[in-house]
Amino acid sequence: MYKKIVYRAGRTVEVIKCYSHRYHPKGAKGPSQKKSPEKIAEANKKQQEKKLNRIINANFGEGDLYCTLTYEDGDHKPRNEDELKKDIQRFMRNLKGMYERRGFELKYIYTCSMGKRGNNPHFHTIVNAPMGYQGAVELVKRQWKRKDATLEETVLATQGDKKRPIFDVEGEEPSLMKGFVKPEALYKDGEYRSLANYMIKNSGEIQKAEKEQKENKVGQTGSEEGKVVKFRRAYEHSRNLVVPQPEVTIIEAERFSEKVKAPKGYYIEPGSVRKGSDWSGWPYITYTLISIKPRGRTKPPDKGRREKRKCG
Question: What is the mean pLDDT of the chain?
Answer without folding.
Answer: 79
